[in-house]
Design a protein that fits this description.
The chain is an alpha+beta fold. A four-stranded antiparallel beta sheet has the order 4-5-3-8, covered by helices on one side. The chain has a two-stranded antiparallel ribbon with strand order 1-2. Strands 6-7 form a two-stranded antiparallel ribbon. The longest helix has 25 residues. The chain is elongated. It starts with a helix and ends with a helix. 14% of the residues are buried.
Length: 178
């Protein structure tokens, strides 16, 4: 269980580091309910694209929705918070360790990303990016041998086709010789 005073101290430390006023202390047992999302339809595939939606990852398992609301409220108006939980299996009803936060404007989301990305929360650095950003894996760190490989798909296909045509020609000649 999280000590509320320790969490408050941690959040004040983050606010000081980001040069923001500390978040107001809310004396309520339930977090505020966010409003409906603001999104833009994407005509290409019918999915919604939200230009001001942040992915927040590397969350400690002790962090709850209320803590995130308190941490991100000074950055701007939070429109929606999607805190994800395991629904099945051994980790059922445990947090997945990431969430999505939508702000009312892209500028507020950019400010939150700039000020809180990489800042530690309960001992773990937050990983914050816009949800539409794609992560390009850096294979040189974990699998350097992949960088030296040349794709051989075309050469293999040409070899197979020549082998198949040769074997087909041999079969035709065998049938004709009978």
């Amino acid at each position: 269980m999280i000590d509320p005073k320790a969490l408050e101290r941690e959040m004040q430390k983050l606010a000081r580091a980001a040069q923001l006023p500390p978040a107001p202390v809310v004396h309520s047992s339930t977090p505020p309910r966010p409003a409906l999302p603001m999104s833009l339809p994407n005509s290409a595939d019918g999915k919604e694209v939200v230009a001001h939606k942040l992915y927040v990852g590397n969350l400690d398992m002790r962090v709850k929705e209320f803590h995130l609301v308190k941490l991100f409220q000074p950055m701007g108006k939070i429109v929606r918070l999607q805190f994800l939980w395991h629904r099945f299996g051994q980790k059922r009803n445990e947090p997945k360790g990431y969430c999505f936060i939508e702000f009312s404007t892209r500028e507020e989301a950019a400010r939150a990303k700039a000020l809180l990305n990489g800042k530690p929360l309960l001992g773990r650095p937050l990983s914050i990016r816009f949800s539409e950003e794609k992560i390009q894996p850096n294979y040189s760190i974990h699998r350097p041998h992949i960088l030296n490989q040349v794709p051989t798909g075309l050469e293999d296909r040409e070899e197979r086709q020549s082998e198949e045509s040769t074997s087909a020609a041999i079969k035709i000649m065998a049938i004709q010789n009978k």
